[in-house]
């Protein structure tokens, strides 16, 4: 035998010994149940005797050594009250983080145990094992909730387990509301006996989710008449506890169910099927389906928590459309929920419940303007800027002029919406539509475009206070918070300040309650102010009064006046976040400004019968002093199309003040203005232009010469330059 062959058995033995030693060490590293219990009780003891450092040490050992099963066994075996101990620990900074981790791991362990399919199967068997096992098994099935539905239903469908059926039915009723949705999904596809049993269970549970599913059975012609009678009784029982009419079709009922799910998502209300277990960022909701092949079974699909309500609304809308393809409200709901689902889907987390091959925008454009107006109306009613922008974008690519301006008024509402993006995109769509006759609010379109010419990443705040000293203090505080603020003791003094800005992001008022109410009423008719959040700095008594009177109005944020600017900043950002959307950053502001300028150029080239570009002239002239070169140059191009003295002289002044590429562009615009509208320049301006011609070289000299000639100035100056060899 070779040396290497002789060495092989020894090598294998060494490897085996190393693996065994590693396994032994790994096993030893994990706490045994008795050690986990000892660590848990040491943790509890030291928390209760106020020794947080020791408690934290024992808690960390427990987290490192005990697996989920050992940890849960220790907690449930111990005589210490877990809730009391952890609540106390969370109040102590030294041990707070460890306590939170222990709390989370215990909860996760309880949830995992309750939802373990093998444990659920054992508990179902125990339902028929006598009163005490039944009570305990039922309690554990209630803890499992909707996750017990597939096995409970499968047991009811198993003819070999008839002895369990009465107990399963009672357990289903005991589990209650969490089973209403999965059982309802299965109901229309069950065999007659199980359909009758489940319908009766759902009626006893008393939750309304199954109503459209039951109506679907009643409208169909496949169910046995005797089963239909059972379903009819269950349907009547459930619908009698609601405000719904029994005459509604199943498609209409599915649409209403979907709308209720959508509305719950709008209000942040958790709906049945949402899973509260796990960390906040990983929470899910369950979308249930029922497969008949190869074996009948309920199937759970996890959906990211932030889009669960939308995913449910989407499913409900699809169910309605399958029953009635012409049901417009169902199609509108489908489009709305699909857009919002896309907007709210966390980055990097897929939605496996979405089976369509195309994005939401595809189906939105396919559906056409009428349904898109429905989406936009829902967005504006809910205060959802992202959804509104989706609807406007789709409308812009599909709707004709009449559909945008006269058929429905949702886009016109967008012109006065508090979010600048929505206002601008609404105006953009209406400007591009090129209507041939005025329409309601058509005068706002150019105003909004003019505002966007000045759009940047700045945030603007208006301040009102009862004396100038208070005004100055608030202006300083808002400046520290990043706002460009202006203010006075009276709103009437601020008209020009308001008009000179692209929008007002915030109103801060320091006053008594009556003064705040007066300001609210006074700003309600101004489209730049009527949705701006109002932070009211008031006394404690006035705060209570205003909160009571404006309880349902997200625009109003009464705050007790205090000197702490940090507290003021928190109140301000909370108020803005509820209503006005995220701030516009520099790059987006530039894109808005340039888009608005090009739209105004197109309007200036038009006939002016609906939109009058002169309404934007003041903003265009102000844009010539903008820090952004691109804005200055395009503003000059637009002003060149306006044939009046102020426009031309503004271009002239700006051109003389600039250098380089911007100066060349403005001189070209000046030449165009003079060519089309004649010479409006002052003698001082023309003298300065001649001096520029004499002093400049290259492109600047050429552009200055072009402007000089276009202004039809005296030729003797040109001759002088020729003779001088210039």
Q: How would you describe this structure to a colleague?
A:
- This protein is of the alpha/beta class and 726 residues long.
- It has 37 helices and 8 strands.
- A 5-stranded parallel β-sheet has the order 5-4-6-7-8, with helices on both faces. The protein has a 3-stranded antiparallel β-sheet with strand order 1-2-3, with helices on both faces.
- Strand 4, helix 25 (468-480) and strand 5 form a beta-alpha-beta unit.
- The longest helix has 27 residues, at 3-29.
- The termini are far apart.
- The model is unreliable at 1-29 (pLDDT under 50).
Topology:
Layout: H1 3-29, H2 33-48, H3 52-65, H4 68-77, H5 82-89, H6 93-115, H7 117-126, H8 131-144, H9 149-157, H10 165-175, H11 180-186, H12 192-205, H13 211-219, H14 225-239, H15 250-267, E1 274-275, E2 284-291, E3 297-304, H16 308-323, H17 328-344, H18 360-367, H19 369-382, H20 385-398, H21 401-407, H22 410-414, H23 420-433, H24 443-453, E4 459-465, H25 468-480, E5 483-488, H26 495-499, E6 506-510, H27 513-523, E7 534-538, H28 540-549, E8 556-560, H29 565-579, H30 586-605, H31 617-623, H32 629-639, H33 645-657, H34 660-677, H35 683-695, H36 698-710, H37 715-723
Helix pairs in contact: 2-3, 2-4, 3-6, 4-6, 7-8, 8-10, 9-10, 10-12, 12-14, 13-14, 13-15, 15-16, 15-17, 16-17, 17-18, 17-19, 19-20, 20-23, 23-24, 23-30, 24-30, 30-32, 31-32, 32-34, 33-34, 33-35, 34-36, 35-36
């Amino acid at each position: 035998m070779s040396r290497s062959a002789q060495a092989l058995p020894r090598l294998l033995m060494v490897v085996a010994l190393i693996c065994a030693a590693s396994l032994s060490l790994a096993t030893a590293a994990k706490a045994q149940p008795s050690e986990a219990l000892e660590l848990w009780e040491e943790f509890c003891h030291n928390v209760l005797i106020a020794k947080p450092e020791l408690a934290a040490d024992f808690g960390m050992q427990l987290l490192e050594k005990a697996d989920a099963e050992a940890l849960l066994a220790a907690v449930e075996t111990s005589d210490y009250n877990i809730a009391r101990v952890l609540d106390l620990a969370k109040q102590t900074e030294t041990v707070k983080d460890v306590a939170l981790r222990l709390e989370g791991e215990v909860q996760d362990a309880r949830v995992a145990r309750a939802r373990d399919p093998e444990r659920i199967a054992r508990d179902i068997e125990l339902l028929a094992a006598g009163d005490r096992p039944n009570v305990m098994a039922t309690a554990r099935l209630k803890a499992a909730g909707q996750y017990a539905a597939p096995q409970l239903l499968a047991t009811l469908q198993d003819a070999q387990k008839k002895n369990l059926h009465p107990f399963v039915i009672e357990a289903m009723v005991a589990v209650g509301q969490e089973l209403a949705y999965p059982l309802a999904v299965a109901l229309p596809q069950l065999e007659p006996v199980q359909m009758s049993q489940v319908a009766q269970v759902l009626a006893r549970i008393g939750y309304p989710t199954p109503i459209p599913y039951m109506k679907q059975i009643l409208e169909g012609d496949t169910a046995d008449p005797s089963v239909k009678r059972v379903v009819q009784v269950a349907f009547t029982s459930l619908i009698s506890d609601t405000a719904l009419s029994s005459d509604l079709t199943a498609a209409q009922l599915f649409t209403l169910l979907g709308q209720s799910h959508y509305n719950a998502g709008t209000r942040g209300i958790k709906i049945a099927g949402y899973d509260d277990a796990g960390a906040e960022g990983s929470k899910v909701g369950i979308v249930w389906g029922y497969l008949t092949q190869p074996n009948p079974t309920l199937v759970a699909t996890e959906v990211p928590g932030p889009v669960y309500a939308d995913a449910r609304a989407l499913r409900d809308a699809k169910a309605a459309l399958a029953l009635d393809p012409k049901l417009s409200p169902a199609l509108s709901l489908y489009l709305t929920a699909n857009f919002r689902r896309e907007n709210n889907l966390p980055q990097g987390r897929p939605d496996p419940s979405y089976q369509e091959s195309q994005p939401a925008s595809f189906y939105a454009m396919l559906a056409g303007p009428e349904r898109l107006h429905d989406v936009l109306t829902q967005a504006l009613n809910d205060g959802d800027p992202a959804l509104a922008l989706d609807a406007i974008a789709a409308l812009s690519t599909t709707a004709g002029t009449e559909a945008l301006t006269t058929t429905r008024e949702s886009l016109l509402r967008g012109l006065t919406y508090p979010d600048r993006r929505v206002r601008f995109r609404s105006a953009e769509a209406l400007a591009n539509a090129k209507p041939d006759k005025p329409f309601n609010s058509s005068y706002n379109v150019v105003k909004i475009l003019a505002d966007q010419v000045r759009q940047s990443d700045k945030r603007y705040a208006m301040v009102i206070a009862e004396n100038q000293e208070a005004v100055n203090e608030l202006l300083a505080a808002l400046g520290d918070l990043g706002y460009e603020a202006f203010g006075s003791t009276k709103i009437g003094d601020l008209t020009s300040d308001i008009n000179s800005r692209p929008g007002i992001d915030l109103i801060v008022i320091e006053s008594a309650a009556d003064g705040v109410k007066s300001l609210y009423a006074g700003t309600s008719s101004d489209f730049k102010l009527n949705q701006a959040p109002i932070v009211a700095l008031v006394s404690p008594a006035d705060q209570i009064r205003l909160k009571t009177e404006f309880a349902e109005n997200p625009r109003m944020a009464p705050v007790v006046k205090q000197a702490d600017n940090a507290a003021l900043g928190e109140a301000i950002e909370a108020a803005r976040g509820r209503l006005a959307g995220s701030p516009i950053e520099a790059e987006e502001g530039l894109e808005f400004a340039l888009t608005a300028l090009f739209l105004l150029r197109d309007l200036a080239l038009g006939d002016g019968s609906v939109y009058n570009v002169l309404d934007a002239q003041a903003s265009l002239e102000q844009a010539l002093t903008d820090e952004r070169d691109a804005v200055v140059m395009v503003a000059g191009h637009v002003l060149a199309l306006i044939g009046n003295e102020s426009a031309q002289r503004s271009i002239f002044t700006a051109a003389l003040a600039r250098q380089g590429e911007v100066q060349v562009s403005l001189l070209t615009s000046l030449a165009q203005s003079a060519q089309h509208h004649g010479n409006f320049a002052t003698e001082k301006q023309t003298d300065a232009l001649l001096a520029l011609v004499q002093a400049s070289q290259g492109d600047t000299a050429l552009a200055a010469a072009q402007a000089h000639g276009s202004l039809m100035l005296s030729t003797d100056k040109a001759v002088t330059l020729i003779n001088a060899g210039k």
